[in-house]
Amino acid sequence: MHVVTSWTWLDVALCVAQLPVAVACGYLLTLTLRSYRPQPPTTRIGPRKFDIIIPAHNEELGIARTVKNLSEVDYPAHLRRIIVVADNCSDATAQKAREAGAFVLERQDTTKRGKGYALAHAFEFSQQDGFAEAVVVVDADTVVSPNLLTAFAKRIEGVEGKEVDGVKGGLEAAHAMQAHYGVMNPTASWRTRLMTIALGMFHKVRSQGREALGVSCGLRGNGMCFTHHALAKVPHDAFSVVEDLEYGIRLARNGFRVHYVWEADVLGEMVSAEKQSRSQRQRWEGGRAQMRKLHGWPLLKDGLRKRDGTLLDIAMDVLVPPLSQLVLAAVGCAVMAGAFAWWSHNPMPWALGVAGFSVASLGAYVLRGWWVSGVGVRGLLDLAWAPVYVVWKVWLMLRGPGAEKRGEWVRTSREGENR
Fold first, then answer.
1. How confident is the model at residue 276 (pLDDT cuts 50, 70, 90)?
2. In whole angstroms, what is the distance from residue 148 CA to residue 267 CA?
3. Of 25, 380, 413, 409, whose CA–CA distance to 196 is shortest?
4. How does pLDDT run across 165-179, given as a tens digit for each residue?
5. How many angstroms separate the CA atoms of 297 and 105, rounded?
6. Which position has the higher pLDDT, 164 or 139?
7. What is the H or E stretch that residue 137 is in?
8. CATH numeric code, 1-419
9. pLDDT confidence of residue 413
10. Among 112, 115, 113, 92, which residue's Cα sits nearest to residue 104?
């Protein structure tokens, strides 16, 4: 009886040890189950004016294409303006942008370098100039869907049928929005297909799930929209390499949730070469690690104290580790529980049950990400490379931070530039 009781306590102890991993996996499962596509709003559009901001650092090769694409959106020309911020450029970005028809702001400041500073400069100009009511942020290597501004304008007017101030059927006007951020070149290589699936999970599954829950969907850096009202209340003082995450946290703390505009797309180019992809991922993961360290637990504490669902959700979003780490942790817990069960000849039902829940939750999350990514059967077969991808990402994190600690511009080489 004593032996049985000892193994029971070990079972419970292993179960408790796995709880952080299980909670993280349960959060992702919740978003997966809620990630259905809602109906687009039917609100009538008012005459909203937009400044489309393109922060650019040495983008002379592709800036004209981006400006041309934005000039062709399905929205009245007199209600939109394209502004390129040529930030600390040493090439012909400003000239190429002007030739393409954009209004250009040139900025040279060697002590304040980075996308966050470029955006703050452009936002301040837009607010003082008075032409627009809202700003849209589009990266310099991006193609957008024609309905981008129309979709944002509908959200600003308000989403019918929402519960606002306790009244059902009211209009919930959006002041911070995020379009779906997808991949322009998903079939370039197995790496871009896996990244497309990864972004399907991170950008679409998470965002649609969070929107369904009525919390902030998060900012992705590309395809963002803010009204001047939001910028006046919460100035864009976010200068880290993940300025989008940093600013999204500040918005949430000031009562603004980010609305997910799923029906509009911004498509960015993902690099297929290992060297450029490594640099890009190191910046992203290093920046998020900084935010996790600075904001994770304070957000969780404040969310619990205020009973604020948006703050609690952002805390979970920040605290949940990268998928590669979470997969390793979940699989490690399952192996450990299985090994103890085999060694002790005891079924360890609680420990194995929690481990099974974590692994199954991650499996559902990954498969949902594959489904919404649209890469088809080939992408599903590419998931066989996932262990290599996971090891690669963990290796990047172990290498330590680089430019992400300084938040400075580090331009990623585009596909075809070195061909």
1. low
2. 12
3. 380
4. 444 445 678 999 999
5. 39
6. 139
7. strand 134-137
8. 3.90.550.10
9. 60
10. 92
Q: Rounded to whole angstroms, how far apart are CA atoms 134 and 64? A: 23
Q: 97-122: per-residue pLDDT in tens?
A: 999 999 999 999 989 989 999 999 99
Count CB atoms within 10 A of the CB of residue 81.
17
Contact between 178 and 218 under an 8 Å Cβ cutoff? The reply is: yes
Q: In whole angstroms, what is the distance from residue 69 CA to residue 63 CA?
A: 10
pLDDT at residue 164, rounded to an integer: 45
Whole-Å CA distances, 27 to 30, 387, 405: 5, 23, 29
CA separation for the pair 8, 16 (Å, rounded):
12
pTM of the model: 0.88
DSSP 200: I
Element (H, E) at 55: strand 50-56
Q: In sequence order, what are the beta bridge partners of 87?
A: 107
For the chain, what are the domain ranges? 1-419
Q: What is the DSSP letter of 404?
A: G
CA 344/CA 3 separation, integer angstroms: 10
Alpha carbon separation from 63 to 56, 322, 401 (Å, rounded): 8, 32, 29
Nearest to 362 by CA among 323, 401, 393: 323
Closest to 43 (Cα-Cα) out of 173, 227, 208: 173
What pLDDT was estimated at residue 36? 87
CA 352 – CA 338 distance, rounded (Å): 7
Cα angle 271, 102, 54; round to 5: 40
Better pLDDT: 80 or 394:
80
Contact 156, 48 (CB under 8 A): yes
Residue 163's pLDDT is 47
Locate 91 and state its tokens.
Answer: 């090439």
Q: Exposed, middle or buried, 4 (CB in 10 Å: 0-12/13-18/19+)?
A: exposed
> Between the CA atoms of 175, 180, 184 and 185, what dihedral angle is there, to the nearest 10 degrees?
140
pLDDT for 277 equals 64
Residue 415 has a pLDDT of 59
Q: What percent of the chain has pLDDT over 90?
A: 62
Confidence of residue 10 (pLDDT cuts 50, 70, 90): confident
Helical (H) or strand (E) element with 53: strand 50-56
| Residues 6+ away with beta carbon under 8 Å from 319 | 24, 292, 296, 297, 300
